[in-house]
Description:
The protein has helices spanning 13-28, 34-62, 69-90, 101-109, 122-125, 131-141, 156-167, 190-196, 216-227, 251-259, 267-272, 281-289, 343-357, 384-387, 390-406, 417-432, 434-444, 496-506, 511-525, 531-552, 561-580, and strands at 8-12, 115-119, 148-152, 173-175, 204-207, 235-238, 297-298, 324-329, 332-338, 364-368, 371-375, 380-381, 468-471, 475-478. It is α+β, with helices and mostly antiparallel strands. It folds into 3 domains: 8-268, 3-Layer(aba) Sandwich (Rossmann fold), CATH 3.40.50; 290-375, no CATH class; 380-580, Aminoglycoside phosphotransferase (APH), C-terminal lobe (Aminoglycoside 3'-phosphotransferase, Chain: A, domain 2). A 5-stranded antiparallel sheet has the order 7-8-9-11-10, with helices on both faces. Strand 5 (204-207), helix 9 and strand 6 form a beta-alpha-beta unit.
Amino acid sequence: MLVYGDAKRLERADTLCAEIASLLHRAQHQPPGIARHTELVAILLRAGELVQGLADLELVRMGADDISASRQTGECLLLDLAGLVARSWRQGFAGPVVVPARVARSLADSQAPLSLSIREPEGYAFYALYPESYLEAAADSGLAADTVVIGLRSIGTTLSALVAASLGAAPPITLRPIGDPFRRRLAVAPQLAERLLRDRAADFAIVDEGPGLSGSSLGCVADWLEDHGVSANRIHFFPGHKGGLGPQSCGRHRERWAKRPRHVIDVDDLLIKPSHSARHLADWVAHLVGPLEKPLEDVSAGLWRKKLPGDRWPPADGRFERRKFLAHTADGPWLVKFAGLGEAGQRKLVKARLLAEAGFTPPVAGLCHGFLVQKWVSAKPMAPPEFRRPAFIAHLGRYLSFRAHSLPPPAAQGASMAKLCEMAVINTEEALGRAAASRLKSRLGDAERYDSTIVPVDTDNRLHRWEWLVEGERHILKTDAFDHSSAHDLVGCQDIGWDIAGASIEFDLTGEERAALRAVVSEGCSRIPDAGLLELFELSYLAFQLGMWMSAKAVATPEEVPRLEAAAARYARFLRRRIED
Length: 581
């Protein structure tokens, strides 16, 4: 099934350098505390994107990772910025921010007007992967300052700088594993290979977010080192989680993974369990909402459903579930949900506040170093008959039109019509067979003819029935409203027609009700998508939802599988009916 996406965007190197310099100047004048530390982490992440983009540009030009003045400048810049984060973290966010003089020189040296392809680091944006975890893991590793630190781009660019800063090591070297995702390999030029292997008797730290389904990125670096004379006993891994390799891993990698040290501090070790109050998520939240009456309550991985009335739970896809907690105060509970580090979290905070101020979503208290704090509303989910009320359709239309005209424009466009159609055909063939996929392909036709009419906005992308709550007699609230246009799936920000299509399917609207919804949206944002485009969106939406819920079963618990199957069956039934019409 085609579900995931690989978000990329273009940025100019000189613009990024100017932004980083400005943020550093601001951080130097901020008072000590978690807010300033959050800013320092955001600066490091932006610099990591700059260095990643420049290194990948050189890789394309040269055909292999190699030594260059640009690479060495970037390595030193990241090590210096990682040092600022490390000092802030270990001093409990106290003390001044003293920026090394060579940081300004490094930024000046990188200010070429180059267009860079930036890959959003997934762990920072979606999976509550904290760079400080790698500081702590390195400190606990027992490794010496002569360790050779290797980071895997993209996210390993910044993570390796933190490991090196913690160890007092030389600036890390970053590599880009290439090729088949399940059989990655390296392209390393002779000069860089010589630098990497200068001391084969040293320890080697391989740093990345993984492992994923195969662990081949981490594994191929270890393969390369061993094949070039480094003892397996000298190889250490700094991964993003404590689990094993995925089902697509090879025997050599599994054997090594079982034997070699893996240095991991996860988010619970870092922010939930520590005795150091300055580093405790609960204390940060308390500064926003008041004293907590008990420890944070974990409601991740679908546990939030225990708070719903009744025992008929909606399905939950663990792959896309964010870390989330309930903070209990005298004024009631607050939802503490991971929204993203750095710029990703700030964008979602702005969006969440705008939606809350407009009355569409619960109130927002603020952002705590990546976790958005929003009021938990103890209201009942809407029942199916309520979806058909004209009042709800009007409210839904106003909500969608508000998203289309009042939220900031998207930072990056979502999947193109060609990509949506490709996904629809692939998912349909896997779920319903080749004949159904062939009929769907004919129905989609020349979908790219609509490209010039599409206006990407910050769509909701999550209009499922269980996402709506009724507070009191009439007040309708939307939950989970700021995440899904920038999720780790391929859809991304789309034309508002995508949400109109999604709502029509989720609420099984009649033709008259669909027309009413389109009219309200059109009145609010002064445009309405073409009827033919809406049909293509509905077909693509059905195929995406079918693929998402079907593929979720592979990693689901046994008790979750029936709910996932029921959801997938509904979309399959609707899609088959639409194809055969």
